[in-house]
Recover the amino acids of this structure.
């Protein structure tokens, strides 16, 4: 009965006070924030009620460190007070939601909590409540109630592509703790490096932890260049034990990932006898997907089980991540031993062999009272009812698994890949591709709309992934992770999120200062002004978007049809019209400069007859890259190497859409601009068909045997409504990265001449 009353109280309170969350300095936002009149000034010496022995959450070293860094005044924290009345006191609660805590700030601070973890979360919130003015520290009087929405609130770190020291990993964990993440997914092995000491197999670190060269430019840039220096490193078992203890003190569980059967080149460089070819190869210094994977012999499984035994001794986590992603089947098809495994176990094909492999490893983990988790490729060939799926290729795999009754962690590339670009400016560091700005992360909902309540209960939560192919320093790692990780913490913690505008205000006013004091190299990309393109009945308009509404840009337009440059001032949120050309192609360079932000930006626009025209998609673009409906008709071409924005991406083999011009025009030709990046599964189409959609029967203009990124299709007719059909291969060929999957088709502009 008490529990029912408590929940009723929370519901009523939350509903009545929700409007005040926009003023709460805590991120992620609590369930309830009730600001009252008055201020509590903090004394030089903090006295804290002593808790019973055994409380891990009692002023842990991290909490003390936070207080010291953020306040820079409390050098004495005691458990006694001359008046016998502690400044901070505690009370443990029963019959409240899991990990529940409350903070009451009046003439003292009273923290009520359900368990040690909740007490720790309360300390993180208390730190964030503290404000400073003229070197005076204070807390606004308030009442807070809080508990998390999702069980799994994770951040991932790939240390295989680039290695980060134990101290850097600890700082990564510290920041996770501040924003109430509870799961650290540690990607310890991959093709480019084996990072965990396994004493039974010393060559895994002697050979597998080091590569002789590393690609310097983007994977899709040619010619490729390499740093010819030896690179690598690994964590000793003692270092891992220390990091696990460190994370545990901060109520963070470390889930280790040992990749199998694919992404295993580093291990096979050390022990080639467990590959299908048995051929000695080095640790690769280039990214991508490699054909060499673990063979399915009994000897290989014994090797992996022995490795897992040592992993289990180091990591007490319930879950062990085994990867399972991007495992080409080429070697298995050619390997007699693997074919024998298929035959002897009555398997249909190599996809079922993948399932057999995963289930065999899962059975071993279950025998050790652990559970297997893997990327959504573990669905291939059938899924064990005990497996947990981490859905990264969108949400489809997670939806499929949850409908079958499997637990799921959502981590789709659309919202949760922090190795993607977060801004469009030239100042953004080289990244793998994609476009995941702050607002997109904030909008993430781990439970897809197509799941009912019962199916949605199998969604444990979500996490962001940080793959480090293009992240070589810890400073750059912080830049890619923050503040996007704070936005994700909102999505995974909060029952009811505040508006993105309110979130931004709290982030910029309060949390950027916290990150500054903690010396975090966070990104300020979201604060930078940018140019937004919009449709206009006469063409397009460009509009400066800036947090400073009064900011102005000096603008110069250099155009091929102008005898002299045009100079004017573009005010924030005041659009500039660019009328579409009526006859010939016009190329313009627009230069924008601002003394206030030191931003110097150039736009190159090809003004053609279709600029700003209407487009209707029969085949919808993948939302991961479709950030604007105007991308194909804005006169701008995507940056090469691919930087994620200015591209529309399709993950289907057949693409159909229509473009409608404002009025009928003679079209001499149409240029379509594609992207070729086979290493990223992006392929040129095999055919294009263009047809006058205003007539039921009209000539089809086509182009086949496409070998160039820019395709010109000759027309020579008057048209108003044009239908496009683009055909790609049904699957990526064997031996190529992503083999067996549908290739992507990327478009950045359709130019009407």
């Amino acid at each position: 009965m008490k529990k029912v009353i408590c929940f009723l109280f929370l519901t009523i309170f939350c509903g009545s006070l929700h409007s005040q969350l926009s003023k709460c300095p805590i991120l992620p936002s609590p369930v309830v924030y009730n600001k009252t009149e008055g201020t509590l000034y903090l004394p030089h010496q903090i006295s804290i009620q002593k808790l019973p022995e055994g409380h891990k959450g009692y002023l842990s070293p991290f909490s003390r460190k936070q207080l010291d860094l953020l306040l820079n005044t409390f050098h004495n924290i005691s458990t006694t007070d001359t008046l016998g009345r502690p400044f901070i006191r505690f009370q443990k609660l029963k019959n409240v939601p899991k990990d529940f805590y409350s903070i009451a700030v009046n003439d003292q601070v009273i923290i009520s909590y359900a368990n040690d973890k909740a007490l720790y979360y309360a300390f993180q919130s208390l730190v964030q409540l503290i404000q400073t003015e003229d070197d005076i520290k204070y807390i606004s009087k308030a009442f807070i109630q809080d508990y998390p929405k999702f069980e799994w609130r994770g951040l991932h770190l790939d240390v295989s592509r680039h290695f980060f020291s134990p101290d850097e990993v600890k700082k990564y964990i510290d920041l996770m703790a501040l924003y109430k993440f509870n799961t650290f997914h540690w990607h310890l092995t991959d093709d480019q490096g084996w990072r965990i000491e396994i004493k039974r197999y010393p060559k895994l670190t002697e050979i597998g932890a080091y590569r002789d060269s590393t690609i310097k430019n983007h994977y899709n840039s040619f010619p490729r260049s390499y740093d010819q220096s030896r690179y690598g490193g690994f964590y000793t078992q003692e270092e891992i034990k220390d990091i696990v203890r460190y994370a545990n003190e901060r109520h963070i569980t470390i889930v280790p990932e040992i990749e199998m059967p694919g992404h295993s080149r580093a291990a096979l460089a050390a022990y080639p006898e467990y590959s299908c070819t048995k051929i000695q190869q080095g640790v690769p210094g280039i990214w991508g997907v490699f054909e060499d994977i673990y063979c399915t012999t009994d000897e290989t499984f014994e090797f992996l089980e022995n490795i897992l035994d040592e992993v289990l001794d180091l990591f007490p986590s319930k879950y062990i991540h085994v990867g399972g992603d991007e495992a080409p089947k080429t070697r298995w098809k050619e390997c007699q031993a693997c074919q024998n495994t298929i035959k002897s176990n009555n398997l249909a094909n190599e996809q079922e062999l993948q399932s057999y492999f995963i289930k065999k490893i899962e059975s071993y983990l279950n025998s050790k009272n652990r559970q297997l988790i893997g990327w959504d490729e573990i669905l291939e060939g059938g899924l064990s009812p005990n497996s947990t799926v981490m859905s990264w290729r969108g949400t489809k795999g997670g939806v499929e698994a949850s409908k079958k009754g499997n637990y799921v962690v959502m981590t789709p590339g659309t919202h949760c890949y922090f190795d993607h670009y977060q801004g469009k400016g030239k100042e953004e560091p080289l990244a793998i591709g994609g476009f995941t700005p702050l607002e997109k992360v904030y909008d993430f909902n781990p439970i897809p709309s197509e799941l009912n309540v019962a199916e949605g209960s199998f969604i444990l939560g979500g996490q962001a992934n940080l793959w480090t192919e293009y992240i070589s320093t810890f400073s750059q790692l912080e830049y890619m992770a923050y503040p996007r990780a704070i936005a994700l913490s909102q999505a995974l913690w909060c029952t009811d999120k505040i508006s993105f505008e309110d979130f931004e205000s709290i982030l910029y006013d309060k949390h950027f200062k916290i990150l500054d004091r903690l010396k975090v190299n966070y990104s300020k990309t979201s604060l930078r002004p940018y140019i937004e393109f919009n449709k206009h009945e006469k063409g397009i308009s460009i509009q400066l978007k800036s947090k400073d509404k009064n900011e102005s840009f000096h603008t110069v337009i250099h155009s091929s049809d102008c005898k002299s440059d045009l100079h004017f001032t573009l005010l924030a949120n005041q659009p500039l019209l660019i009328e579409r050309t009526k006859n010939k192609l016009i190329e313009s360079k627009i230069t924008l400069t601002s003394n206030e932000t030191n931003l110097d930006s150039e736009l190159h626009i090809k003004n053609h007859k279709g600029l700003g025209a209407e487009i209707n998609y029969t085949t919808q673009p993948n939302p991961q890259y479709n950030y604007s409906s105007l991308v194909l008709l804005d006169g701008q071409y995507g940056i090469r190497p691919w930087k994620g924005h200015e591209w529309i991406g399709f993950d289907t083999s057949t693409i159909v859409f229509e473009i409608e011009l404002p009025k009928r025009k003679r079209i001499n030709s149409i240029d379509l601009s594609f992207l070729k990046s086979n290493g990223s599964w992006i392929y040129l189409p095999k055919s294009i068909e263009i047809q006058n959609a205003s007539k039921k029967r009209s000539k089809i203009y086509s182009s086949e045997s496409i070998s160039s990124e820019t395709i010109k299709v000759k027309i020579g007719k008057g048209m108003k409504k044009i239908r496009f059909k683009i055909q790609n291969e049904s699957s990526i060929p064997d031996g190529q990265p992503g083999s067996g999957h549908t290739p992507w088709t990327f478009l950045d502009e359709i130019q009407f001449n």
Notes: Residues 1-18, 72-76 have pLDDT under 50 and may be disordered. DSSP finds 18 helices and 36 strands in the chain.
